[in-house]
Amino acid sequence: MQFDLLVVIKRIAIALQERASRNRGSFYFLLWLIGRPFSYSQRMSEEKVRSEIMETGNPKIKSARIIIQASPSTIYAFLNNPKRHKEIDGSATITENISGPDELVLNSKFRMKMHLGIDYRILNTVVEYKKDELIAWKHLGQWRWRYELADLGNGSTQVTESFDGTYAPGIAQIWLNFRKAYPWTQTAVAKTLVRLKAAAEAK
């Protein structure tokens, strides 16, 4: 209850500061001073977590990595359960998991409801799998979303996520380039890792 009250106070102070910044006068200046520390703290907390974008040497592979203070098994539990993919989705395209097992293994199939301009559904198949270390899936377009986990031995794990378009046939490459998918997926993998870190470290 005390924590919730503090959150409310911070939000009120930030709102006052934003209002004061649009007005002049001693009263509003006072409000601006009150809200400033909370506003600054919020911006810092939002900006301090970043994943590292990696140079792969291949324009069709977009990768990023991050260190998460959690065990590989804890992190993997988000990756091999399609019902949890929406929680960590940095692309903001997953609407819900429609079908599939609670625990993915090699050749598992799972269907997702998606939205990217329009609503659509897609069937994914797990094509790379090593429990707590590696998982990747593909769909009709044949490109892959891959996660690689490396136990750092100190209670933390390095996670590398890649969008791999090298498996996509010619017609799919035309689509990817037309949609400018490669720069978009670079941002998506980076954001997904930040969300994965937050979810895994909160457990």
Secondary-structure map with pairings?
Elements: H1 2-21, H2 26-47, E1 52-54, E2 61-68, H3 72-79, H4 85-88, E3 94-99, E4 109-116, E5 118-130, E6 134-138, E7 144-151, E8 157-164, H5 170-178, H6 181-201
Antiparallel strand pairs: 1-2, 2-8, 3-4, 4-5, 5-6, 6-7, 7-8
Radius of gyration: 21 Å
Shape call: globular
Q: What is the tally of beta strands?
A: 8
Number of structural units classed as domains? 2
Average pLDDT, rounded to a whole number, is: 85
Q: What assembly state would you assign to the polypeptide chains in this entry?
A: single chain
Q: CATH fold name of the largest domain, please?
A: Alpha-D-Glucose-1,6-Bisphosphate, Chain A, domain 4
CATH class of the largest domain: Alpha Beta
How is the largest sheet built, in terms of strand order?
Answer: 1-2-8-7-6-5-4-3
What separation lies between the terminal Cα atoms? 20 Å
Helix content: 40-55%
Main sheet record: 8 strands, antiparallel
Strand content: 25-35%
**Series of H and E elements:** HHEEHHEEEEEEHH
CATH architectural type of the largest domain: 2-Layer Sandwich
Describe the structure in your own words.
The protein is of the alpha+beta class and about 200 residues long. It has two domains: about 1-45, no CATH class; about 50-200, Alpha-D-Glucose-1,6-Bisphosphate, Chain A, domain 4, CATH 3.30.530.20. The chain is built from six helices and eight strands. The chain has helices at about 1-20, 25-45, 70-80, 85-90, 170-180, 180-200, and strands spanning about 50-55, 60-70, 95-100, 110-115, 120-130, 135-140, 145-150, 155-165. It has an eight-stranded antiparallel beta sheet, with helices on one face. Helix 1 packs across helix 2. The longest helix is centred in the first third of the chain and has 22 residues, at about 25-45.
